[in-house]
Design brief:
globular, alpha+beta, seven-stranded mixed β-sheet, BirA Bifunctional Protein, domain 2, 5 helices
């Protein structure tokens, strides 16, 4: 069977953001699995509206167009599904022990090497029109700005330079496989794979409402379960940005 993800790859030297470029293609009816790659972004975005910093040619940055026939409420699960795929690719290609920090970061030795940004556009019936899945992997950075002292790169972790082409191919192949599993079986089975790769289970975490507790698990929807003490279990839901409602 031909892969869904990566059949068409558009490569650019510099863009404002791969999400923005892919968003235009999606709105014009672009096929599921289309990928936009850039060597540099002038206005890249991370989670919660943060700017994604990169120096030209040092990061592998790409966005993937997905059109899953599911309710919009399922879209946040794609952060976790994508995290599993990225860890699969990094561990196999780069001989590292990458781990996932809920919901959308991949870590090596406790430092962030990759971020995942899913942006979903809904239809009028409450189902997904399309998802722009942005992935940024720090590959060749030898140093980061002082404010990014919690970041790392594949080079810093391995002291080896990594060819972006094979890494992109491996990541797209892993994403195609895990996305297919999710479409066929939902998140229930992939939840076990996520747990094997998780970095934070059993650790104390801070919740956005100001509370804190111990991360216990994720449920079958992909929400994080936090033990806040005194018998209270808090369910934390990962939000996916919806830039606006698209047409059916």
């Amino acid at each position: 069977m031909s892969p869904v993800v990566g059949h068409t790859v558009h490569t650019f030297e510099t863009v404002d953001s791969t999400q923005a470029v892919l968003g235009h293609l999606a709105a014009d009816g672009g096929l599921e699995g289309t990928v936009v790659v850039a060597r540099h972004q002038t206005a890249g975005r991370g989670s919660r509206g943060r700017q994604w910093w990169d120096a030209p040619g040092e990061s592998l940055m790409f966005s993937v167009l997905l059109r899953p026939p599911v309710p919009i409420a399922w879209a946040p699960q794609l952060s976790l599904v994508s995290g599993v795929a990225v860890v699969d690719a990094l561990n196999a290609c780069c001989n590292v022990d990458a781990r996932i920090r809920w919901p959308n970061d991949v870590l090596i030795d406790g430092k962030k090497v990759c971020g995942v940004l899913p942006e979903a556009v809904s239809r009028e019936d409450g189902r997904v029109n399309y998802v722009l899945l942005g992935i940024g992997i720090n590959v060749d950075q030898r140093a980061f700005p002082p404010e990014l002292d919690t970041a790392t790169s594949l080079f810093r972790a391995t002291s080896v330079q990594h060819d972006h082409g094979p890494l992109l191919s491996a990541t797209l192949a892993a994403l195609d496989r895990r996305y297919g599993e999710w479409l066929s079986n939902g998140f229930t089975e992939l939840r076990l794979e996520w747990r094997k790769r998780a970095s934070m289970l059993g650790q104390r975490v801070h919740i956005r409402d100001g509370g804190e507790g111990v991360a216990i698990d994720v449920d079958d929807s992909g929400a994080l379960l936090v033990d806040a003490g005194r018998g209270v279990l808090t369910r934390v839901v990962s939000a996916v940005t919806d830039p606006g409602q698209g047409s059916a």
